Amino acid sequence: MKKNVLFITKGKSFMANTIEKNLEDARYEVIHVEPELDSMNEHQRESDLLVFLLGPFVDDIETSTFLVYLKDICTEEDKMLVLIGTVPEISVVQEYVPAALVAATFERPFDIKKLVEQLDWLLQANTDLARRKNILLVDDDGTFLKMMKDWLSAKYRVTIVTSGVQALMYIADNKPDLILLDYEMPVTSGPQVLEMIRSETKVDNIPVIFLTGKGDRESVMNVVSLKPDGYFLKSMPRDKLVAAVDEFFEKKKFKELHDKMIQ
User: Fold this and answer.
1) pTM for the whole thing?
2) Contacts for 210-216 with beta carbons within 8 Å, 24 or more apart?
3) What are 71-111's pLDDT values in tens digits?
């Protein structure tokens, strides 16, 4: 298991040096990142584990721009964010980065040994999670997104985006095993997103299942006519929806096995 961490600190301090030394003693590669957009852009792909040592600077206007960016990459790229700071400092960050996106918080003063143990656990959990199928969930309804992510995260890696444009940006660099796509979205609708996916040879074979709130015959026929890999009604209860996703992957696995046998 590769142990590296993006350590976000404002300059150097006694606390920052102490944390960095303890991480290095635990065989972590520590990549220092300033809480600035340029610094984060340069290093963000080097680790999925982010440790942010807070300070009074979190109240600065410049830092607020960084926090908005941090929220976006934690949402879109499944970064694991750990916050270290005072209660007021953590509260300021969570005004921009929702608590649901924060993997752990450590209020000062804290036990550095427990911090290292927590990071080890997060990395191991992330390694286990990486073996799971990856689902991209696309919907403009934040409440529905959170509910669906909660339902599916026990078995799958779930990435959430809130628009068709964000979905297309995500698949430009990532290839999910399945896209669950809201049929009705403002600006770029589900059918438009599907059309753009199918027109790009790099991603045209990604399975897409529509999520629709309408179950009447005419609406269903309109969805099916676009030839997605399936459709789910948003009104489906939790157990049936998860079972439907499980069934999709099982059928896909058997089809792939069958195709290999007849080659």
Assistant:
1) 0.56
2) 210/181, 210/182, 210/183, 211/139, 211/180, 211/181, 211/182, 211/183, 212/183, 212/184, 213/183, 213/184, 214/183
3) 988 887 778 899 999 999 999 999 999 887 898 999 999 99
Residues 213 and 247 in one domain: yes
Q: Is pLDDT at 218 greater than 90 in this prediction?
A: no
228 phi and psi, to 5 degrees? -75, 180
Q: DSSP for 185-239? A: -SSS-HHHHHHHHHT-TTTTTS-EEEEES--SHHHHHHHHTT--SEEEETT--HH
Top-ranked range on mean pLDDT: pick from 18-22, 119-123, 162-166, 192-196:
18-22
98 and 137 fall within a common domain = no
What does the alpha-carbon distance between residue 23 and residue 21 come to, in Å, rounded to a whole number? 5
Which residue range is the domain that position 162 belongs to? 132-261
pLDDT mean over 116-135: 83
User: What CATH number is given to the structural domain containing 74?
Assistant: 3.40.50.2300
Q: What φ, ψ does residue 53 adopt, rounded to 5°?
A: -85, 110
Q: For the packed helices 14-25 and 112-130, what is the interaxial angle rounded to 10 degrees?
A: 50
Rounded CA separation 2/150 (Å): 28
Cα maximum dimension of the chain: 66
Tokens 């979905």 belong to 167
| End residue of a domain, out of 75, 103, 129 | 129
Distance of CA 200 to the CA centre of its chain: 23
Domain count across the chain: 2
Residue 231's pLDDT is: 85
Give 257: exposed, middle or buried? Use CB within 10 Å, 0-12, 13-18, 19+.
exposed
The CA distance from 135 to 127, in Å, is 16
